[in-house]
Amino acid sequence: MAKYKRILLKLSGESLMGGKNYGIDEKRLIEYATQIKEIRELGVQTGIVIGGGNIFRGLSGASKGFDRVKGDQMGMLATVINSLALSSTLGSINVKTRVLTAVRMEPIGEFYSNLKAIEYMENGEVVIISGGTGNPFFTTDTGSSLRGIEIGADVMLKGTRVDGIYTADPEKDKTATKFDDITYDEIYRRGLKVMDLTATTMCKENNLPIVVFDMDTVGNLKKVIIGEKIGTLVHN
After folding, report:
1. For 117, how many CA atoms within 13 A lie in the half-sphere containing its CB?
2. Could you give a GO molecular-function term held by this entry (predicted)?
3. What is the pLDDT of residues 14-29, one digit of tens each?
4. Which of 121, 159, 223, 172 is nearest to 28 (CA)?
5. Residue 124 and residue 205: Cα distance in Å, rounded?
6. Are 104 and 39 in contact (CB under 8 A)?
7. Exposure of 63 by Cβ count < 10 A (0-12 exposed, 13-18 middle, 19+ buried)?
8. Measuring CA to CA, which residue among 185, 136, 187 is closest to residue 158?
9. How confident is the model over 167-176, as a mean pLDDT?
10. What DSSP state is assigned to residue 16?
11. What domains appear along the chain, each with residue ranges and CATH number?
């Protein structure tokens, strides 16, 4: 039995690299698609936002001389490429999808509206929302928070390569300890970088909980959906 009826799943672009240094690892893509199919079969209405950091990140481009607006627009296009790749992979295992874009680019994807997204999810399709917010200077985390709120998601699931939120970066500090759950206020107080401040504040103010979990471990997405205690729950 699924704990959540409708979710917004946020995936990082970097995670799609798998064992590669750049681009998309086909094995990782299949692993993700298979996990998404599992939760669709439980009847969970699923919206997805994917980052573009495996291809291009606007902020890092700006540090190398790119115009920030143009750099962010390139990053938005990178999210569209990743969304099309995931859509194609899901289609290959008989999962119906829709790719919606924050800026008009038919026939690559349909122009996003929350009503369209909700309609498609209610009809059993996985909706992949690309292009960030459609505006520069906003991260994909902020785009995910916005879309999660707009589609009325019960929770935002932030799939990462670590198994939750820690007191410090566990890849750098071996003494870091994991939180099973944490409030938004404590995240502010401790200065933890779960997401950027805008994204975190949007979720807090709209009472959208977040579960941060390790998406790279096959089967974890279903475990979160059925209510197993993995990852870290962020709440008011």
Report:
1. 26
2. ATP binding
3. 999 988 889 999 999 9
4. 159
5. 29
6. no
7. exposed
8. 187
9. 87
10. G
11. 6-235 (3.40.1160.10)
